[in-house]
Amino acid sequence: MRYDELMDAIASTSPTDWATLSPPSVERFKTSGGDDLEVWLAGHGSVAHLRSDLDVSVAWGADQHDGPWEGVWGQWSTFPDQSNYGVWAEVLWRGQPVHRQVLASADGGRHYLPAPNAVMKPNNREIEKWVVERDDLPLARLIDGLAHPHSDLDQTLQTTGLEIRG
After folding, report:
1. Does residue 43 carry a pLDDT above 60?
2. Which residues contact 140 (CB under 8 A, 6 or more apart)?
3. How far apart are CA 102 and CA 64, in angstroms?
4. What is the longest distance spanned by two Cα atoms in the chain?
5. Beta partners for 48?
6. S-S: 89 plus which of 60, 93, 100, 165, CB 3.0-4.6 Å?
7. Cα–Cα distance between 73 and 67 in angstroms, integer?
8. What are the extents of the domains in the chain?
9. Checking DSSP bridges between strand 46-50 and strand 56-63, what pairing results, if any?
10. How confident is the model at residue 26 (pLDDT cuts 50, 70, 90)?
11. pLDDT tens digit string along 147-161?
12. What is the mean pLDDT of residues 90-107?
């Protein structure tokens, strides 16, 4: 499979075409006292496999930054809950990452959006608008749909006023 075919698979499928595992890995150990000890591995909190091709999977949820986006990076949000976090999302082929992008976990984790970029005014000191890249939409749309089945990323983007570029 070529990279463009893989990305087309991401764009042309819906969340119902995928099987989700959350959390993807939990290790259990016995302590010397005989108690079970669960260890959650750091990294992505969720993984989904394409039902029609188990070589294709996506993973998401690993922290992009320690803590919420602050300062200028939090200004784009118009959600009631202003806490926005960056999380990594990856497309995997046979378990190996072949594409990675940052998603914004917005409104207290209720939405996954492509990470917005600031477009500066000509004076280069003020933000004119916030945009998301069109090429970032397919993976964000899939992840948002897998994580939040009743969410509609396109409607969410309209609500926020984020402009789609490209």
Report:
1. yes
2. 89, 101, 103, 112, 113, 114, 132, 153
3. 7
4. 66
5. 20, 58
6. 60
7. 12
8. 3-165
9. antiparallel
10. low
11. 999 889 999 999 888
12. 94
Counted residue by residue, the chain has a size of 166
DSSP three-state, residue 110:
coil
37: alpha, beta or left? (left if phi > 0; alpha if psi -120 to 50): beta
Record the tokens describing residue 78, joined without a space: 């118009």
Q: Of 113, 129, 135, which Cα lies nearest the Cα of 3?
A: 135
Residues in Cβ contact with 162 at an 8 Å cutoff, skipping those fewer than 6 apart: 76, 113, 116, 130, 131, 132
- Measured CA to CA in angstroms, residue 140 lies from 26, 104, 111, 124, 134 at distances of 25, 9, 10, 29, 10
Closest CA to 107 of 151, 138, 65: 151
Residues 1, 97, 37, CA angle at the centre, nearest 5°?
A: 135
**Which of 72, 57, 63 is CA-nearest to residue 20?**
57
Give the model's pLDDT for residue 74. 77
Instruction: State how far the Cα of 108 lies from the Cα of 136, in Å rounded to an integer.
Output: 21
Q: Which two tokens stand for residue 63?
A: 């922290």
* pTM for this predicted structure: 0.85
Residue 63: per-residue pLDDT: 86
